[in-house]
Amino acid sequence: MKYITMIGPIMKFPARIAMSATIFSSLLTPALAEDRQVSIYFTGDALAKYCRTHLTLAKANHGSLKDQLDGEKCMTFAMAIADALAIEGGDAPVNETLPRSCVPASIIKAGALADVVANFLAKKPELRNRSGYELVRLAFADKFPCN
Description:
Blueprint: H1 2-5, H2 13-28, H3 44-60, H4 65-88, H5 110-123, H6 132-143
Helix pairs in contact: 2-4, 3-4, 3-5, 3-6, 4-5, 4-6, 5-6
């Protein structure tokens, strides 16, 4: 994606990784309530917003720094879920009711993973009431089903 390179002159690569990790950890850290319900910090609505921004920037090749950061949230989140699924062999044990996905190892660009999620969310707006995690898993399973 070209818009990622717009941040390049402002931030060196290690700084971008640190920024992404910080944003990502703050969005994913679940808080357990007294009834043991897990709070979801990255909702489907938030993910849809960030992924819409990602698609808009990918087409326009320019945008504000805030829009670039929002687009990177979609990419970072998709990339982290893909990493977790790769470690778990395509099936994370937290929720066995979600379909498996087999993301090809050749897809190593965060932009390509974000495109899959963004396009899935654009086609299925009725699913945005689910968690961001579930939506990424569903998007990957839709695009990369295990055979």
